[in-house]
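Fill in residues.
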C-alpha cells in the first residue's frame, strides 16, 4: 500500500502545462492528484491561459510558490512550442525552482521529450526531467511518484 503522506516533500506547487491532444494535460492532472493526496496545495493552469494574463497578474499567481512544475509536449515544427518560448522570454522565475515534465514519442529518437529538457535547461532545474511516452498509464505511476519524491521546496 502506498503511504501518500510520504510521497513528496513539496508543500505547495504551481503546475503550468501546454498540451495539444491531451496527453500532457492528463499527466499534469495525475501530478496534481498525487500532490494533493500527499497534502500539498496546488494550482494547475494551462499555459495559454496563464500567458493571457497581464504580466502583473501572472506574477501575482507565481508569488506564493517556490516550486513551479512546467510541462509540455514536443513537436518537430517549433521547439519548444511557442507558449513555452513566450514563458521563458517573459518570466525569469529567478526566485523559483522549476521541475520539468513532458510527454513525447520515443519514435522521434533524439528529440524525445526535447521541450521538457529545454525547459529544465533554461530554468536550470535542479531536478530530473519526467518524460512519459504519450498518454500516462498505470504503468507510469511508479515513475511519476519517484519523480515527485525527489522534489522538495527547500
Ligand atoms: C507532428 C508531430 C511531431 C512530433 N514530434 C515529436 C518529437 O520531436 N519528439 C517527441 O518526443 N514527440 C514528438 N511528437 C509526439 C508528441 O509530443 C506526443 O504525442 C505528445 O504526447 C503530445 O502531447 P499532447 O497530447 O499533450 O499534445 C510529435 C507529434 C506530432 C503529431
Amino acid at each position: 500500500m502506498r503511504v501518500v503522506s510520504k510521497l513528496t516533500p513539496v508543500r505547495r506547487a504551481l503546475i503550468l502545462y501546454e498540451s495539444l491532444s491531451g496527453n500532457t494535460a492528463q499527466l499534469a492532472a495525475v501530478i496534481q492528484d498525487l500532490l494533493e493526496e500527499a497534502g500539498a496545495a496546488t494550482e494547475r493552469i494551462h499555459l495559454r491561459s496563464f500567458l493571457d494574463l497581464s504580466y502583473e497578474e501572472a506574477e501575482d499567481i507565481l508569488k506564493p510558490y517556490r516550486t513551479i512544475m512546467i510541462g509540455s509536449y514536443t513537436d518537430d515544427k517549433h521547439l519548444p512550442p511557442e507558449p513555452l518560448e513566450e514563458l521563458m522570454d517573459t518570466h525569469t522565475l529567478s526566485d523559483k525552482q522549476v521541475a520539468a515534465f513532458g510527454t513525447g514519442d520515443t519514435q522521434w529518437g533524439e528529440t524525445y521529450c526535447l521541450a521538457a529538457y529545454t525547459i529544465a535547461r533554461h530554468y536550470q532545474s535542479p531536478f530530473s526531467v519526467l518524460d512519459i511516452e504519450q498518454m500516462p498509464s498505470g504503468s507510469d505511476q511508479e515513475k511519476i511518484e519517484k519523480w515527485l519524491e525527489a522534489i522538495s521546496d527547500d
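Residues 1-5 have pLDDT under 50 and may be disordered.
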